[in-house]
């Protein structure tokens, strides 16, 4: 047998494999999501996300210090809003002394260099568990966008570096960019959840924040997973409206979408490896059916290989330890 090409040569040893590896994870690839609750010294494990916790502000600050010391450059903040503060107008979302605004200030004070990104959507604040204002059983677009813009401004005033609208209303990026400009927040970035799909994989997150929709689903605003051209269109529009980073979410079921957007929208692309993706690995590992460490690194490497410049993941700390 005479062969002129032997593909296995480049896989001969760990050293050779490392030399030709196209995709290498580094700590600055990761954005660490954080769930914040009221109180002091609170650390509550999320039942559908074993090993992941809701922290009160004091412990959140401790956690952020640890993330920064590990080389992680960014956190993405979510808060759990008390039931009595929820309404259908997003009142608490724009409260300058709300939990989110206090969290931004506390983190900025303690770890000024870390990049603070904040979730912008009404669901944690909504008595209906929807990302927008509800009228006659519908999620109304323009009135919601107006609140999202004010919410973004209030995060910027508290010291957020990036606002991350995850609501999927039309026109919100332009409105947010405009209000930031009008108020001279020229250095605040926007990470737009442009390709956010109506996915079954957000279940554990909704447990974490007690934010499941009270009626219906989110299919009139989040994307249909049958489509990728729409995701590309929306990412292009968000970039034109002033987004600095576009996001694809979830990640592993949508690697084709990440690649299309990476190829055609010329701004950084992030991918959100979401709560259900975390839970699947955790559950299989607990059953002894998958090796957790290998599953984590393969998943995150594949997301980066598909074209993600940044990955929001609940495995950020595990991944850095494993690198
Ligand atoms: C809220 C929001 C959701 C997630 C991030 N922001 C849930 C939803 O849209 O219902 C999900 C994140 C995850 O599952 O890890 N707008």
TrEMBL record:
GO cellular component terms, semicolon-separated: cytosol
Residues at the catalytic site: 196, 249
Keywords, comma-separated and alphabetical: Heme biosynthesis, Lyase, Magnesium, Metal-binding, Porphyrin biosynthesis
Entry-linked Pfam families: ALAD
Known pathway: Porphyrin-containing compound metabolism; protoporphyrin-IX biosynthesis; coproporphyrinogen-III from 5-aminolevulinate: step 1/4
EC number: 4.2.1.24
Residues annotated as binding Mg(2+): 234
Annotated catalysed reactions: 2 5-aminolevulinate = porphobilinogen + 2 H2O + H(+)
Main EC class the enzyme belongs to: lyase
GO terms classed as biological process: protoporphyrinogen IX biosynthetic process
Molecular-function GO term, any one: zinc ion binding
Subunit structure: Homooctamer.
Family from the record: Belongs to the ALAD family.
Name of this chain's protein: Delta-aminolevulinic acid dehydratase
Species name: Chitinophaga agri
